[in-house]
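Translate structure to sequence.
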């Protein structure tokens, strides 16, 4: 089998490394041009990996560029992986590989189709989330599910921890699927569309802490959009403060403590950031 890969984030690179660790290799990699999405969460560059493995690397502006289809066909790709990529592949791309296109989504599909899956899982206070390996079909996160991994969540889970858990689940699923692909025995279970939910895109500005809200809502928001996401923040005449970690306390304490109607939030890790339109330009969704 001949495999191709499309990614621009660490989750995808981890999967590429897992493919080689399984004894297989790639015949093509595609990624974003260097100047695009430079602040995207988990953004990585594939140049070193491609050079190390003598792997053809094509840089594109969009997954639906003509160069994408041409490269897939020129390298006679059987299975194409698109992982950690926010652009939706058109039918022409889905039909370009000889066998099909595989993707992963960090929810238990059909729950949580759409964007910002890691922050939303925390914000929704779900008891668990997971990662789904599925075959791409027209639409957003549709197509038959091949395998899933479940990830329990607690009241302390933050985006940094969950991102690492999601990364490990991606690697585990790659290890599981590679023998099936090489043996041409890939399973698939159609998604139940009646149970599908769609989570909307989040923007960096959605990290604003509402001082009129609950202290517990603020603490949850901070956990949901901490590293590798843009962070939660408060604004003051002196500028913007990004808060990466905090805890609910009964009385004011610490150098920075936010007062809500139902309690106090002690800020444990924070930094100043200017309130300018350019300071968040190109920042990743959170």
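Result:
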């Amino acid at each position: 089998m001949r495999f191709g890969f499309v990614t621009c984030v660490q989750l995808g690179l981890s999967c590429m490394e897992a493919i080689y660790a399984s004894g297989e290799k790639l015949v093509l990699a595609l990624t974003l041009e260097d100047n695009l999405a430079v602040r995207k969460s988990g953004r990585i560059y594939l140049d070193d990996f491609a050079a190390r493995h003598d792997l053809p690397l094509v840089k594109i502006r969009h997954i639906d560029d003509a160069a994408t289809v041409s490269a897939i066909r020129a390298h006679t790709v059987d299975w194409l992986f698109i992982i950690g990529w926010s652009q939706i592949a058109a039918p022409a791309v889905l039909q370009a590989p000889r066998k099909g296109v595989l993707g992963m989504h960090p929810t238990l599909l059909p729950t949580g189709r759409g964007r910002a899956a890691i922050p939303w899982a925390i914000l929704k206070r779900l008891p668990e989330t997971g990662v789904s390996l599925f075959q791409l079909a027209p639409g957003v996160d549709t197509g038959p599910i091949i395998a899933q991994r479940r990830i329990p969540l607690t009241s302390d889970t933050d985006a940094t921890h969950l991102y690492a858990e999601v990364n490990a689940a991606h690697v585990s699923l790659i290890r599981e699927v590679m023998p099936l692909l090489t043996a041409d025995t890939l399973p698939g279970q159609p998604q139940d569309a009646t149970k599908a939910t769609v989570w909307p895109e989040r923007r960096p500005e959605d990290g604003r802490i509402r001082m009129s809200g609950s202290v517990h809502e603020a603490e949850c928001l901070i956990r949901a959009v901490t590293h590798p996401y843009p962070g939660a923040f408060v604004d003051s005449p002196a500028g913007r403060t990004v808060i990466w970690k905090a805890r609910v306390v009964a009385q004011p304490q610490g150098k920075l403590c936010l007062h809500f109607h139902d309690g106090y939030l002690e800020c444990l890790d924070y930094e100043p950031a200017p309130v300018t339109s350019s300071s968040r330009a190109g920042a990743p969704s959170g």
